[in-house]
């Protein structure tokens, strides 16, 4: 049955100057006859949302602060939990999906400043939030909107102060490439630094400690397999101790049981960007 809801998405892949910093951008226009409430599972792509028609209410955050209010333009930092959002009637916005390493370069502040938080963009980067959203609103097309935002982000990245130590970037790449299953102790040993130092510096730039970041990466990959093979096979494939361990992790990071999450087919940054699996 047609419930009257209309959603349109336009995708944009940024140029090489933002490679590794911005995974992609999505323009979204949504119309609904009533209130739309969604739950967003934990993930490794961090949304910077510029709304130019409508506000999004952050109803709840299972791991962090910033809920209980509505935002026009906001950024959600790296978190291990799920978020519940709500809007009524109309939502037009441009969503930029930052990588954890992109937060420092694009926003010019440590990942820990926004980790486990939802904050208004203008509170952390004055001028990049509602003022830019107003310019986006006045643009004649999505191509023009994407060009405006990409130019603004490229300027910030070029002059950003959030330079990441090479070993932090290397460690993050290893965690991603392993699907979150690499032994953190092995990576720490290869850096030549102490475990405490590595955890502190990595978290400052990425937002979470290596272990917590790896847990989110593993969840993303496991969640992408839900509904395709038995849970026991997914647990073994992604390094969980057993099916119960996988189930607890899915509930913690999505708010749903594995079967409910698979059935809900909740939108994620990867699906918004047109990818079947996490990048």
Task: Offer a quick outline of the entry.
This protein has 12 helices and 8 strands. The protein is an alpha+beta fold.
Could you walk me through the main structural features you see in this protein, from its secondary elements to its overall organization?
The protein has 279 residues and is α+β, with helices and mostly antiparallel strands. Helix content is 42%, strand content 24%. The chain has 12 helices and 8 strands. Strands 1, 2, 3, 4, 5, 6, 7 and 8 form an 8-stranded antiparallel sheet that branches. Strand 4 and strand 5 form a beta hairpin. Helix 5 runs antiparallel to helix 6, helix 8 packs across helix 10 and helix 9 packs across helix 10. The longest helix is centred in the middle third of the chain and has 17 residues. It is globular. The protein starts with 5 loop residues before the first strand and ends in a 7-residue tail after the last helix. 42% of the residues are buried. The model has no long low-confidence stretch (mean pLDDT 94).
Write the layout of secondary structure elements.
Layout: E1 6-12, E2 22-40, E3 46-53, E4 56-61, E5 69-71, E6 73-76, E7 83-98, H1 100-107, E8 118-120, H2 121-124, H3 130-138, H4 142-158, H5 166-177, H6 184-191, H7 195-206, H8 210-225, H9 231-237, H10 243-254, H11 258-264, H12 269-272
Antiparallel strand pairs: 1-2, 2-7, 3-6, 3-7, 4-5, 4-7, 6-8
Helix pairs in contact: 1-4, 3-4, 5-6, 5-8, 8-10, 9-10
Task: Record keyword descriptors for this entry.
42% helix; 279 residues; 12 helices
